[in-house]
TrEMBL record, chains A, B:
Domain (HTH tetR-type): residue spans on this chain: 1-59
Binding region for DNA: 22-41
Protein name in the entry: TetR/AcrR family transcriptional regulator
Species the sequence originates in: Spirosoma taeanense
UniProt entry keywords in alphabetical sequence: DNA-binding, Repressor, Transcription, Transcription regulation
Keyword Transcription regulation set for record: yes
Top-level lineage group: Bacteria
Organism taxonomic ancestry: Bacteria, Pseudomonadati, Bacteroidota, Cytophagia, Cytophagales
């Protein structure tokens, strides 16, 4: 039952944010009573906390899997984009804002996940890219990893990116491709171009005419 | 006298942030009494407000000047970097944090400057770059301009970039070069490479071997 509650809560939180979803809503969707939910969780914060904890573990193993199967760091980062976009399509921009404003423990957990796992994955990606000659050797990995990590929250900021003007998909796509391209060497561009769909307008090569 | 007070306050604020500098400090440096300062300003917030207002006008005309003299958008953005670095060398990372936390009117003015003038300059730069074939035609100018504008505050965030690990100069350099490179077309790279000092390690060309 605990797993069913978490799965349904996740679906609803992702779709509407956390604040608008009540314990009642979750119970109704599952055809159970609120009392059953309270047998497993004290309050909504405990549910969102557990959802984030589970999500962090799951995302991390997806990323670890990509790191193993991708043949190079450029492919790896573009696979992570695909993964994010699959999630992003379903996600309400309210989600992170609600958590930040109203669920401090859950937000602290997200921050911790961001500062540790995500940061480390990005740093490793950058260092691998440099050592394979795909990213410039003159970049500062720590500064750019920080930039990338901050972009994750930036994309959720609907004051900066009003939801009636941009989709999350569009923002993530724009930011990640720009992020990768800014690091590429000539060799890196050859690899990058091989992974990107390229109508000539869409993805001009940097190779010679 | 008002101009002398503003000039000295600016120098002290830039060096130590706003909070640590007292009206007494400003008076002492100028060899005047505090009373003389209070003849011109009600409080420190009024001084920092005026300093920012003057700075915004001055910066904006420097940028306008670069836009006129630079022969292309890539040169223009790299000149703005030089200008920022000249200022950044002298600036305390406390400055923006102090203003954000303790001087709401001054911060609102900075925000307004950022949202209007800076945003517009960046957008114009991106649009010109695209129309001249130096930046990719498939980028979304509004999303990337927003990214760049947010990087300005990011660089000042000493929780993210601890001052014992990074200089402002280093952060700005890294972020702006990465920002420009992420937008460049092949033609853009040729132009960019012509403006950058290039020990081969430091600035690898993207042109063919």
């Amino acid at each position: 039952m605990k797993e069913r509650i978490l799965a349904e809560a996740e679906r609803l939180f992702w779709k509407y944010g956390v604040r608008l979803v009540t314990m009642e809503d979750i119970a109704r969707q599952l055809g159970i009573s609120k009392k059953t939910i309270y047998q497993h969780f004290n309050d909504k914060e405990q549910i969102i906390y557990q959802v984030i904890a589970d999500k962090a573990v799951k995302n991390q193993s997806e990323v670890a899997c990509m790191t193993t199967t991708a043949s190079n760091p450029v492919e790896e980062i573009l696979q992570v984009l695909n993964m994010m976009q699959k999630h992003a399509e379903q996600v309400s921009p309210n989600l992170l804002i609600d958590i930040k404003r109203h669920y401090p423990q859950a937000f602290a957990l997200f921050r911790q996940y961001k500062e540790h796992q995500i940061m480390r994955s990005i740093l490793e990606n950058i260092q691998k890219g440099i050592s394979q000659g795909l990213y410039r050797s003159d970049i500062n990995p720590a500064i750019l990893a920080r930039l990338r990590v901050e972009q994750i929250e930036l994309a959720f900021n609907s004051e900066l990116f009003p939801t009636d003007q941009y989709t999350m998909h569009q923002i993530q796509h724009e930011l990640i491709h720009h992020f990768v391209r800014g690091m590429l060497t000539e060799k890196g561009f050859a690899t990058y171009n091989a992974y990107c769909p390229k109508p000539s307008e869409y993805n001009p090569t940097i190779n010679p005419e």
